[in-house]
Amino acid sequence: MIEMMTASFLDRALRALAILVLSFGFAGAANAQTPYSLGSYTDWNVWELDEGGQKICYIVSEPKKQAGNYTRRGKPAVLVTRRPTPNVTDEVSVQPGYTYLEGSSVDLAVGQNEFTLFTRGAHAWTKDETEDRTLIDVMKRGENMVIKGESIKNTTSTDTYSLLGFTKAYNAMVAACSG
Hints:
The chain is built from 3 helices and 11 strands, in the order αβββββββββαββα. With 179 residues, it is an alpha+beta fold.
């Protein structure tokens, strides 16, 4: 996973971190804008915010079921973030509610489709934009998504997300932030 530590990776990580921080109300930056809701679609919510004059949209969901050998953890979520400029990019990210074990990976499954995400701190991502597009296409056709990870305390989690409403939420996000 060390080869993933490129400038592109760091850029993806920093952008996702900014969205996560803003989406869960921990924004402390003076210039940060408060995200506003564009609607809810069953188990997915659509949000929009302005980041330095750039409109950014994202969809987010929380797990319907959480299991594992942990004693406590923060609020897990999955996001798909759309950045329309300079190029349209849709990025899938996972926030488990804890810090991942360094060098670990995350197993994500939608039906028979399996993906391995890389981790950094308290976030996980696909390896590139092509895999993001493939995962999003699979999520549109799925019913549930299962995500398994391991924390720095060697505890594990298995979160099950509903994909009901994902396609409608994704389409609303695309319409709001089409570039």
